[in-house]
Structure formats: structure tokens, C-alpha cells
Amino acid sequence: MSGKPNILFIMCDQLRWDYLSCAGHPHLHTPNIDRLAAGGVRFDRAFVQSPMCGPSRMSFYTGRYVGSHGATYNKFPIKVGEPNLGDHLRALGMRTVLVGKTHMKADAEGMARLGIDPESEIGVRVAECGFEPWERDDGLHPDGPYDPDPAYDAYLRAQGYNDPNPWQNIANSAEGDDGEILSGWLLKNSNLPARIREEDSETPYMTRRAIDFMEAAGGHPWCVHLSYIKPHWPYIVPAPYHAMYGPEHFLPVNRSDRELEDQHPLLAAYRKHRVSRAFSRDEVRDVVLAGYMGLIKQIDDQMGVLMDYLERSGQAGNTVVVFTSDHGDYLGDHWLGEKEMMHEESVRIPLIIRDPRPEADASRGTVSAALVEAIDLAPTFVEMAGGAPLGHVLEGRSLGPLLRGESGDTSFRDYAISEYDYSMREARTMLGLSHRDSRIWMIREQRWKYVYCEGMRPMLWDLDADPGEHIDLGADPAYHGVRDRMQAALFAWLRRPSQRTTVPDAAFDPPATHGDELAAGILIGYWDEADVIEERERHAKMAADRVRQQEETDP
Amino acid sequence: MSGKPNILFIMCDQLRWDYLSCAGHPHLHTPNIDRLAAGGVRFDRAFVQSPMCGPSRMSFYTGRYVGSHGATYNKFPIKVGEPNLGDHLRALGMRTVLVGKTHMKADAEGMARLGIDPESEIGVRVAECGFEPWERDDGLHPDGPYDPDPAYDAYLRAQGYNDPNPWQNIANSAEGDDGEILSGWLLKNSNLPARIREEDSETPYMTRRAIDFMEAAGGHPWCVHLSYIKPHWPYIVPAPYHAMYGPEHFLPVNRSDRELEDQHPLLAAYRKHRVSRAFSRDEVRDVVLAGYMGLIKQIDDQMGVLMDYLERSGQAGNTVVVFTSDHGDYLGDHWLGEKEMMHEESVRIPLIIRDPRPEADASRGTVSAALVEAIDLAPTFVEMAGGAPLGHVLEGRSLGPLLRGESGDTSFRDYAISEYDYSMREARTMLGLSHRDSRIWMIREQRWKYVYCEGMRPMLWDLDADPGEHIDLGADPAYHGVRDRMQAALFAWLRRPSQRTTVPDAAFDPPATHGDELAAGILIGYWDEADVIEERERHAKMAADRVRQQEETDP
């Protein structure tokens, strides 16, 4: 048995940060997730690198900003050479296994260019962003160009569900009085029970598939990415979860008429999207949130199943559990639906880490207000696996110092970054922008949130004075200085050497003296032999000085 | 025989833009290169993407900025997945062949990660930045860790030169009165004749190797990168070239005492480098420039050999000839040696393109003042090979419109960019900077040149008032506005979507209406069946409108 812990890396899809009782939800009780938080750290200010499944996940899986890995939208393939978490952990002796969703699209053209057979072991891994697929399921299987026959469909058929598309018509539909199928795609059906036995629905199924792997793994160290496809739409859940919540249990809608005055052109365009118009109607929220909350409650119960399994199988003491989400869901807040923009409802995620090892006792049961990014998980996992920091590749920071109580919350990071590319969205068409210019960047400090919008004025919120983000100060002359400072931060961030990923930090230490060139016989700027002798002596002296300093500091 | 022209892509190493008679040098007559210019276009304002061999070449070979491909310094491997010119031209049916230097270092770790065998056909190509190596020779073979036995050494031995290191001791050394070896590495020996027959020296040898390929190619379309390793140091040339030039033939040294007053801290550090101190001495220049100019004269004579071969073999009418360099050489100008900083002597290069096809007649014999970048060659070649623009990968612009007289010089580009990472240089050590911060960016308009220096004030020159770049306005309060404007240009450039390389521009056209989601059965934000019907009707109407518009514009 290796000394390194296993890592159970659980991700929900579209779970807002604030729909958990440990995060303050007064009516949605999530005792199992709360128990996880009580045994670890709940990171209260965690942000995704992009409020959209694909780019957000590629950042989780590579530990790199979206602008660095380039997969800026769903189904934009990530470049074939981009190193990922699986590569790093495998090099440290850990199997890195997928159960559920990645939203990965392989760079088939790049693979062909490099002669990588998609059916080979490496090819399969490259096509799964570094994961060894135990069960891959991106969670959308309508009749159409999506995967028409996932393993889950075979499972459902084996359970006796007879349907050409059991994912859609059984797991994600309800039934009318006369047996007619009521599609879960339609929001009006969100508070009806899915026509499936609860234990056969997607969340319990994926939980069992993860347990299957953990049972089969033997003593080999692993990182399992258990990636649930809910509470993402279709918003529909089987009984009894469909009937647990009503409007009296929702958080009040976070929107005001003020937001519609002098609104930012990009938000105005997004508010015209069908989904925003739908969620701005109370009748829609009243039905959909029942389904959304039921899906979360079901996930919490499955967390109980998982945690019980870890205890029962004796693995709890050697398994770090991470619980998070790939982005939030507006649910009508700010007159918006879905995600994509930069309000907290969209970019802020739940993040809980329970590290059972004694060195994490210092932080157990605490809530961290540090500004944490999704890309921090990859370096955290690499550190847990005993690896050296890969600062030339991984752009996040290990959360280890926070887990061990070695870093203060406010000193951890000055600002979190999120990016979004809306080139494939109707808002871009409405605004008449080029696909190169339809991009935004968020800089989020503890107090201020600034959003740089290509071709438009920025957005700005004062989160201390206006935690609900109703008052956009992006055009207010009084806040010129704040905006300049935030823009300077973005400019600095853009200058980072994000593509210099083949040269480890150690290559720069000690700093150059050009002695290596001299030693290699490369003589640049030497007039005669005397110059060479003089320089050799200078380098010999520097080397001797280094040795002496080394001996003095490290006797 | 294919309709596409062959491309002979000739690069010198460290050839300044102004050491050619067609560029105005009064004493260094280069009639063969001038003849090339007279038959094509001489681009008078062409710039490298980085004033250093490795990063500059990786930009030439990928058509991407240095910050995009990430190989920011010599021997920093370029990432394994980075697409290159060879990939693009091969896909269009052209062999892309290397004769000479690339300064490429393969990403061995990345290749291993992806299971690419370095001995395989693809592995060899990946390790050569996409070129099929006909002859690879990076031109530095001292006793030490460099390639100790290039094919050139075998050639020399076959000619009867008996030496354990013929590259160093025969081709790049002179001989004293008593037969002792006088190393070409030492600047004092630069005006002595190399102890080799002229026809066996590196420049004629590489010319013949290129001709060997062109003879062997048959009718298959090709792009040959003939990449000379001179006039780069060791600055030494065989007779008679060693004795053709003396101080009376040099351009006057371009430096003033004014440059040493209130000098920029980075330039101050660079002026302390050994090579800068050496070239600031007149006795050094007086000797070295004789060798440097002799090497250029030898290249010009070899251009004559090459052009005669193309004529004689009937290929001149079907071969586009490109002549350029990977960066310049300070030669003591501005109290500096080598390259690396952003003065014209370092970043500006000769660039001549002779396209024999009739469509280029409009520009034949002209001089273009357009701001041209090294990365413009890759898209130019792709266009010549009949390929569609690869705007999502290639960051340069095809020079085709300039060659065809379709674009005005001033409208071609507002500013040229060059970048440099001096993390491996002694200047960084002197300044005590982190290896992440030791970087600079140039924005060069027709009039102004601005250099953003991480952690320091910028540099600024007014090229109209001060073409010699003696007066750095980077700290002058009067030029605040110019600096702000230039910094804004850098900020805008940094925001480009440089890593979104897997999604072609056509994917964004027509702009999104979300109709594709609807068609795929992904229903986001639909309350009921009526919503779906309404949306289907809206999309049907938009599709019909598009067809009608298409018919009206294209009957």
C-alpha cells in the first residue's frame, strides 16, 4: 500500500455554490455534504475559470487557464499536446480514472497529424483528457448527433426498461395520466417524477459505477473523477425527490428592476436569450427549482452512500474527498438563465476538501474565504501524490498550505480570473461582433469584481456595498480609479508566460552567468586567449563562492 | 507537374537588414541579392518575432507569435502538438525539406507522453519542427555537448581534412605562421582566412546540398528551407573573402554618448555583457566586421550559384525565391553586441521575395515600406500552395496582396510585434528579476517604437525625428500620451485568442442562432411544446431568409 492517499474527485454539473445547507441554504438540507465540510475545509470563495462546462472542465483537468489551453467553448477540442492531470498523476504512480462526464472533445486532426491511433491506449487517454475511462457519459443523449447508446442505456435495458432511447424517454421524462411521455426537456414538467425507479436514475448509477472501480482497484493508488451529470438540465428527478420542494423553499430571486436600467449591452443581449426570458417568469422558476433542488437532494443522499462505502471498506482514512461543480446556474437571478456571465450565481462554485491525514487537522471543519480557482485542484492533487510543483505547466496553486493551516486566506491570492468566449452564442449575433472579439474576462478581488468586455465598456460591482451585484459601476465616473487598477491587473495577467511549458522552473536556478556557454565551448565576445582565461577564472571564483555559501547555510 | 510554384526559402543567420547594397550599403556590393530584389519585392520594414535564433525561427516555422508557441529561448523545446509550416504544406501536397539550421529542440517529454517514437517518420518530422531533414546542421560543433559529428564533418574528412573536429579546427579556424591553430571563436582572428578551401566551407557546401535536393526532387512540388549558418559567429571566412573589407568599408558605428546618460536599466545591464563591452571597442569592430562582411559577400556569390542553377535547370519560372534572416547583429551599435534588444540593428531583417508568376508583375522591382513580420511567410506560402487561410492557427498575414499590388503599404499592418525572454541571460541575474518577469515586448509603428519592459519603465523612440534611436523617450513626461497608446496596443494584442487553434474560422459562420442545438434535440429554456413549435418556425424563417439573400447576391 502506497503512502499517498487516494483522491475521490467528485464534480456535479451546474450546482450553484449556495444550494447547500452548509453554504447557508435554509431549506435545502444536505447533511451528507455538510458532514464532508465538517470533516474538511469548505472553500467559500471558489471560482471556475469559465462559466461553461467544456472550458471550465478543461481548466480543472489541465490546471491551466482557458486562455492557455485554448478550449474556450463546448466541443472546441483541446490541443493534442496539452498536458493534463492524468499525465501528471500517472507519472507519480496513480491511476486516474473517469466515471461520468468530462465534456471532452478530442483533437482528432492533431492526433492524426501526430500519428496517434484513437484506439490505442494512449489514443484513448488523449481523447479523454488524460483519464482512463471506466465509464464515460457526458449526460446528453437525445435523438440526434449525440452518443446514441451510452452504457447507461444498456444498463436500463437490462433492468427491463424497453425504449429506443431510455436515457431520454425513461430517465429524463415524466408520464401523463394516459401514459403519454412528458419530456424532461420542457421546463413545465420539471416538478413531475421521472418515469424510472430512483435507484436506476443517473446519480445512483454513477455512484455505483465509482464504487465498482474502487472495489476493483486493489491496492493501486488512484484518483477517481466521479463526475455527475446532474443537477444539470434536463431538470427532472424521480420520486420521491420531485415532490420535496416548492416555492416556499427557494432562495428569493436575486434580481431588481434597477438592473434593467442602463444595462450593459452584453447583459442586455443575454437577457434576450430564450432561456433568460423563460427563467425571468416566476411560473417557470416555481416549477423548475423544485426539480433542481430535488436533484441536489438526491446527490446529497448519494454522498451518504459513498461516504458510508468509504468508511465500511476501510478507505476513508486514506482517501481525500473533493466535492465541487463545474459552474453555477442563474435560475432567473439577474433576469438570466443558465450560466456564461460573471455574476456569483454563475462563476462561484461549491468546493469542499476533506483530507483525512493528520497534517490537515489544523483546518478541519473550517470555512476558507481565500480566493480559490478551479485550476488549484491539479497542483493540490500533484502535491498530495508526492510530486514536485510543476509551476511551468500548472497555473493554479496547491491548496495544501490552506489545508495545513500554513497560509492565511487573504494572502493566498489577490484576485480570481474567469474567462468566457461567447462566439457561438446568439448574443454575439445580436451584437454583430467578430468571433475573435466576443470574449470577456473577470477579475474578482475580495471586494471588487471587474469584467473586461472586448469592444464594450467594462462591468464593475462593489461586493461589499452590493453583494447581490445589482449596481453595475462599470460606467460610473466615480470608479475610474478602481477600473484602471483592475484593468492593470488583467494586463499583468495576460503577460504571464503561459506557453513556456517545456522548461521547468529549476532550469532557471541558479540564474545565468553564461558559464554554461563557456563550458560548452561557445565563446561569445572574447577578443583573445587572455579574455578566455579571465572569464574562466571569474566563473571558477563564482562556483567556489556558491559552494562556500552552500556550506555556510547547510553545514 | 503541379500548378503550384516551388518555394526556395533561404535564411541567413544574424544578417542585418542594412548590410546589402540593395538596402543601401555603400561598400558591400551584393549584386546577386540585388538582382533578386530587382526581380521581386524588397520588404524594407520586416521584423522578427524575437531577436534570437530559436524563438525567431520557431515563429517563422509555425507562423505564430513567440508568446503563442512558447519556445521563448534557444533550446526551449517547442510543444509537441504545435502545428507548423511543414504540416500545412504537406497537407497541400508539398514536400517541406530542411537543408541547414533550424535551432529546433524537440519536446522529448511530450513525444514520450504521446507515444511518438523519435525514430519514426512522424517522430523525425516532429523533432525537426515539421521539416523533412535532407541535411540538418545547426552550425555549432565545438568540442562539447553539441552535435559532435555532423554530416559536414564527414564531408570534410572525405575531402582529406584530417582533424578530430574539422568544423572547429578547419572550417572555423585560421592558422599562424608556425601552423598553429588560431580559433575563429576569438574575435581577434576574424580577419584571417579560415584554413579551408573556399568551396569546402559551410556556405558553398549548404548551397550544393540544396541543389542536390532540387535535383533529386523530380516533379514533386517542394518547399526547401535552405538555412545558412553564416554570417553568424564564429566570424571567420576563407580566402579571398577575409581580405575584401576594412574599416573604410564599414557603416559608421551607430552610437552616441547620449545613449549612456540616464540609460534604461535593461540596456545598462546588456551593455555590461562581455560581448557588448568587446564590440564597444573600435579595435574589435575593425577586425570582426571584415570577417562579417566577407561572410555576407560569400553568401551573395552563392546566391549567384543558386540563381544560375534555377535558370539553367529551367526551374526559375516555377520557383518562388525568398531571402531573409533570423535576426540582426548590433556589431557595437548602441554600445551593444549580438542581438536580443529591440533596436533596428537587432530586430529588423532583410526580406526579399521573388515570385516569378505573372500575378506578381505589378510589384516587381519595388520596395515595400509595409510593416511585415516573420510570421507572414507561413500564410504566404500556404496561399502560394493553394491552401485556404488558416486564420485560427497562423497569426501572420499573407504577403500575397502586397506581391500582387492589391494592398497599400501603410494599410497592411498598424504595428509589428517582437518579444524577448532574457531569463537565461546574465542581464537577468544583474537585475535580480524572476525568470517569469525577465521579458520585453516591442510595438513598432511606422513612426514610434515602444518597448514594454516587465518590472521597469518602457523604452520609446521617435523614428521620424531620431532614426538612429539615440534618444529614449521612455521616461519623458511629454510623451505620456504616445506611451499610453502603445501600451493599449500591447494590451489589445495580448487579448488575441492565440490558443483557440482547433476551431477553423468557418465554424463561426453563419453566426449562431442556437438553431443547431434545437436541431440536435437540446432544448434549453423551453417551457412547453408551443415554445418548441414557435422556435422551429423562427429558425425555418431565418433559414429561408438566408437562402433568399444568397439567391439575390449570387443568382
Descriptive labels:
17 strands; four-stranded antiparallel sheet; alpha/beta; homodimer; nine-stranded mixed sheet; 555 residues
Give a short summary of the structure.
With 555 residues, chain A is of the alpha/beta class. Chain A has helices spanning 31-38, 53-62, 66-69, 85-91, 108-113, 121-126, 151-158, 166-171, 202-216, 265-272, 274-279, 282-312, 344-347, 377-384, 400-403, 409-412, 426-431, 480-494, 515-519, 529-553, and strands at 6-12, 41-47, 95-100, 132-136, 173-175, 181-183, 193-194, 222-227, 237-238, 319-325, 348-349, 351-354, 366-373, 416-421, 439-444, 448-453, 459-462. Chain A is globular, with a radius of gyration of 26 Å.
Write the layout of secondary structure elements.
2 copies of one chain form a homodimer.
Chain A: E1 6-12, H1 31-38, E2 41-47, H2 53-62, H3 66-69, H4 85-91, E3 95-100, H5 108-113, H6 121-126, E4 132-136, H7 151-158, H8 166-171, E5 173-175, E6 181-183, E7 193-194, H9 202-216, E8 222-227, E9 237-238, H10 265-272, H11 274-279, H12 282-312, E10 319-325, H13 344-347, E11 348-349, E12 351-354, E13 366-373, H14 377-384, H15 400-403, H16 409-412, E14 416-421, H17 426-431, E15 439-444, E16 448-453, E17 459-462, H18 480-494, H19 515-519, H20 529-553
Helix pairs in contact in A: 9-12
Describe this structure in words.
Two copies of one chain form a homodimer. In chain A, helix 9 packs parallel to helix 12. The first copy, chain A, is globular, with a radius of gyration of 26 Å. The longest helix of chain A is centred in the middle third of the chain and has 31 residues, at about 280-310. In chain A, strand 5 (about 175) and strand 6 (about 180-185) form a beta hairpin. With about 550 residues, chain A is of the alpha/beta class. Chain A is built from 20 helices and 17 strands. At the A-B interface, helix 3, helix 5, helix 11, helix 17 and helix 18 of A face helix 3, helix 5, helix 11, helix 17 and helix 18 of B.
